[in-house]
Amino acid sequence: MTLCRPVLALVIGALGCLAFDRAAAGQQAPHTPNGIVRALRVAEPPTIDGHLSEEAWTRAEPATNLTQRDPDEGRPATERSEFRILYDDRALYVGVRLFDHDPKRIVKRLSGRDADIDADSLTVVLDPLHDHFTGMQFRL
Question: For the chain, how many structural domains are there in total?
C-alpha cells in the first residue's frame, strides 16, 4: 500500500496541473450544441400560473431537442418535451411542457438542498458568458 500513495499523489498532482494549465490558457471546454433554447424578449412579464396559453408563450420558439441523463446520458429524451424561455428587463421566465405516456409512473421524491435527486427532474443550465465552460444550473 505504501507504493500506491506516492503514485496516487503524483496522478492527482498531474491532473491538477493540467486543469490549471487549461484554465490559464483560457481554453474552452468541448461543446455539444444540444438543448439550446432561444429566448424571446417580452415587454410585459407573463402571468405565473402554470399555464402556457398566453400569447408570449405561444410566440416563443419551443426547443424540443432535449436530452436525458439517466439511463443513457446525452441520448434524446424518451418522452416529448417543449421548452420555452421569455425574458424582460427584470427576469428570465422558463416554460416547460413535459409529456409522459404513463403519468402514474413519474417518480416523485423530495431531497435536501444541493442533493442529487433520484427522481424525474428537469435541469436548466445557463451559459451567460457564452464560453461553454462556466454557468449556472437549476434543477426542478
Answer: 2
